[in-house]
Design goal:
Layout lengths: L12 E4 L2 H8 L6 E4 L5 E14 L1 H6 L6 E4 L4 H4 L8 E11 L4 E12 L2 E11 L4 E12 L2 E12 L5 E9 L5 E9 L5 E9 L12 E11 L4 E11 L2 E12 L8 E2 L3 E5 L3 E5 L2 E6 L2 E10 L5 E10 L2 E15 L5 E18 L4 E10 L4 H4 L19 E11 L3 E12 L8 E13 L6 E12 L5 E12 L2 E2 L5 E18 L9 E17 L2 E3 L4 E14 L38 E14 L3 E14 L17 E8 L3 E9 L6 E11 L3 E10 L10 E10 L4 E10 L4 E12 L3 E10 L9 E10 L3 E4 L2
Length: about 775
């Protein structure tokens, strides 16, 4: 090999490279090499800058007859970092020692070796081509394109940097997992076998503190074929103290996807059910569906099995949960009543895209009896329930629906039925319910025109059947006069057709009749508002007085209407200025009315704001159509007063309804929240006048709070108190620990709801979640 020496170079580079491959790779022969040779047994090259070395694997395998020392000219380094065919090892170091007699190389100082997408960094690296081994010592780090980094005090690898042995080994895994061992064997496929090892998802502090938890084992195997981690003679340590032992243990590799297998158990204790134990099994059926099966054992009742199923489709997804047992009724003290019977529930639903603007879906809520859910502490509120109609308290909703929307229209069709957990026997099947809304913008001068078509069919096994079809047209525009006065005229017309069947007569013994009729309704009016703004001084203030005048047609058929869809109306600042204040179609507010109010907003500082509202409505003509507890029954409605102050970490909201006749506070709703580094909490107080006949407690306070005791420990206290009866309906108190890798919570709960035979109940729930491993404790 012909070479030349240039002693002016800052250092030297030892490499063996197929120049033909390099020229083909670069597309041109621009690489020049200045070389020299040495006849001594070993030669050391020191560089002021980084040394780059490339060693061809083909030359290493066949043996090198001689070594060449070269300096790579500018532009060569980028080409040397990629290979095809033969796989060279590229080494960067501060110092290189070549041992010609032993046939090896020793690189020292900031050593970096690269091959096949793998990189090894170390303080010192020894390469032995005769045995195809690479030995790295001191602060060794291995990086791969498709694998987490690995570290060691010393490691010995093959020349492909794939297989090897390590001392003082540690590695970072996906999802913050960490593993370490005194001795490790690394396979070419990426699998690891660790001796005297531990695994944790906790951060390891530099001051040497013990991690919150770790699994310590005599042997750990990370199997890349099964994506599992297997342990022998494993114990769980908490802050360095062993708390559990098992001869064998396994869990999914943190880098793997969903895996079938046992999940951590769930446990607790309840005054009604006794000691509780649940053992979930997770079944990864396919990449797009899974199921969790959980048998539950309880001391006072027969076992219960629960299933949760999920599946995703290209157009949507569905979810189901269900439970089953065969058991007698039970009271709050754990006493069994009546005969055993099948007890179950099923909740679920799904929603699917039909087109870009249309979806269809369904929701299912069914239970075997009124008390199954509360008996087994299953929530009556299904968090993932899809649908258009939301379930009400102690009512289970079943519905099939289709829904479409664009900027100009909205449409829905629903078939729905309700299972009541109360003492209600005349709830209808609602099928179909339909509505179509078309909106047309007629420009700034002509406003907005909206057309609505609606239909409802309600069928009962015992009671009145109801059919209604409606069509309406409403118009609204906005004009702004000089000085900022806002004028908004509006008008609407509607026609309804009703058919009632199985209607009982006015007197006992009168025959059941059928009644069909139609009606034409309409209203017109205008709203004036004048937003006034003051931006002088440290605050920005907006005052907006508002006045609305409306006249509506008489409802001559009101005596024949059976009210199905407008049974609830509760006056607040949102409802007060609505043109049609009924919640549905059956009630029509006739006559002439004036509505007036004042809205204010004050802004200052960094996002601080104060908002207020006061308003009232006065009926000048027409009969009352709303219930006495609505705030709209009298000619002069209740006075609505609302306010909110938001200071960022602290906020207060207040709403009240004041009786216009005697000043009685018919409703009070107060809330406050505070958030700081050490404490966060929300409190709400509300009361209703007893004479209004509202269902539920007339005076209640709710508190949710969490106090940060230390960086990781929190104290939790929640209570819902019925002031009217002087009892706590719900109360919970607990401690929670949370850090980077652990979530622990112990919670005492007491409920005093008195539903059927189910009176007060108490429970203690314990939940432990070890990140990447799973959770232990109550659901």
């Amino acid at each position: 090999m012909g070479c030349a020496t240039d002693h002016d170079l800052a250092g030297a580079c030892l490499y063996c490279l197929d120049r033909r491959w390099l020229a083909a790779r670069r597309g041109r022969a621009q690489h020049k090499c200045l070389c020299g040779s040495d006849t001594g047994p070993a030669k050391e090259f020191r560089m002021r800058s980084l040394l780059l070395i490339a060693v061809c694997a083909s030359a290493l395998v066949s043996g090198m007859a001689e070594a060449a020392t070269c300096a790579v000219t500018q532009g060569a380094e980028g080409s040397l970092l990629s290979t095809t065919g033969d796989d060279p090892v590229y080494i960067e170091a501060d110092t290189l020692i070549e041992n010609r007699e032993a046939g090896g190389y020793l690189a020292r100082g900031n050593v970096v070796a690269r091959q096949n997408g793998r990189t090894v960094e170390a303080d010192e690296l020894e390469y032995r081509p005769g045995t195809n081994r690479v030995i790295a010592r001191g602060n060794v780090a291995i990086f791969s394109d498709n694998a987490p980094p690995q570290f060691a005090d010393e490691i010995e690898l093959d020349d492909a940097l794939g297989e090897g042995l390590a001392v003082g080994f540690s590695t970072l895994l996906e999802n913050n997992g960490r593993a370490a061992s005194a001795f490790a064997v690394r396979r070419a496929d990426g699998s690891l076998e660790l001796t005297n090892a531990y695994y944790t998802a906790c951060r390891i502090d530099e001051d040497g503190d013990q991690p919150t938890w770790r699994l310590r084992a005599a042997r750990v195997v990370r199997d890349t074929d099964t994506d599992m981690m297997y342990y022998r003679d494993v114990r769980l340590e908490v802050l360095g103290v062993p708390v559990a032992y098992s001869p064998v243990f396994a869990h999914a590799d943190p880098s793997s996807g969903r895996r079938s297998g046992l999940l951590f158990p769930e446990f607790g204790v309840s005054s009604r059910l006794g000691a509780l134990y649940g053992q979930p099994y997770y079944w990864a059926i396919s990449p797009h569906q899974d199921m969790t099966i959980t048998p539950r054992l309880m001391a006072n009742v027969n076992p219960l099995i629960e299933l949760e199923y999920r599946r995703r489709f290209w157009s949507g997804d569905l979810e189901f949960e269900t439970s089953y047992t065969h058991e007698r009724d039970i009271d709050s003290d754990g006493e069994l009543l009546n005969d055993a019977h099948h007890r179950w529930h099923i909740f679920g639903g799904g929603e699917f895209d039909v087109t870009e603007n249309w979806v269809w879906g369904f929701g299912v809520q069914l239970a075997s009896d009124d008390f199954h859910l509360r008996t087994y502490d299953i929530s009556e509120i299904y968090e993932d329930y899809p649908g258009i109609i939301e379930p009400g308290p102690r009512r289970l909703m079943n519905q099939l629906y289709a829904q479409g929307r664009t900027d100009n229209y909205y449409a829905e069709v629903i078939a729905s039925g309700v299972q009541s957990l109360r003492n209600e026997s005349q709830l209808p099947v609602m099928a179909p319910l339909g509505e179509l809304r078309l909106t047309t913008a007629a420009g700034e001068r002509f406003g907005r025109l909206r057309t609505v078509a609606s239909t409802a069919v309600l069928t009962r096994n015992d009671g009145v059947d109801y059919q209604r079809a409606s069509a309406s047209l409403d118009w609204q525009a906005q004009f702004i006069a000089p000085g900022g006065l806002v004028f908004e005229p509006f008008a609407a017309g509607r026609t309804d057709y009703y058919n009632f069947s199985d209607v009982s007569g006015a007197l006992p013994g009168d025959p059941v009749t059928e009644d069909s009729f139609g009606r034409i309704l309409g209203y017109a009016g205008a709203e004036l508002s004048w937003p006034l703004i003051n931006t002088t001084g440290p605050t920005d203030t907006i005052l907006e007085p508002m006045l609305q005048a409306l006249i509506a047609s008489d409802n001559s058929e009101s005596a024949r209407i059976i009210n199905e869809d407008s049974q609830t109306a509760e006056l607040d600042e949102t409802l007060l200025f609505e043109h049609n204040r009924a919640t549905g179609y059956d009630i029509w507010e006739e006559g002439v009315r004036l509505t007036y109010g004042l809205r204010s907003t004050t802004l200052w500082g960094d996002g601080n704001q104060l908002r207020g509202f006061i308003g009232q409505s006065r009926r000048l003509d027409g009969d009352p159509v709303f219930a006495a507890n609505s705030g709209l029954f009298e000619d002069d409605s209740d006075i609505i007063i609302a306010g909110e102050i938001d200071l960022g970490s602290f906020s207060i909201t207040a709403r009240t309804r004041v009786d216009a006749q005697d000043g009685t506070l018919n409703r009070i709703d107060l809330g406050a929240s505070y958030r700081s580094d050490r404490f966060s909490g929300r409190i709400r107080y509300f009361s209703f006048d007893d004479s209004l006949g509202r269902a539920g407690p007339s005076e209640e306070v709710q508190l949710l709070s969490q106090t940060r005791l230390t960086d990781h420990w929190n104290f939790v206290y929640n209570v819902q108190r019925d002031i009217d009866k002087g009892i706590n309906r719900r109360q919970s108190i607990g401690l929670r620990y949370q850090d980077f890798c652990t979530d622990f919570e112990i919670l005492y709960q007491r409920e005093n709801l008195n539903v059927g035979n189910l009176g007060p109940s108490e429970s203690i729930q314990v939940r432990v979640t070890l990140f990447t491993l799973g959770g232990i404790g109550s659901e």
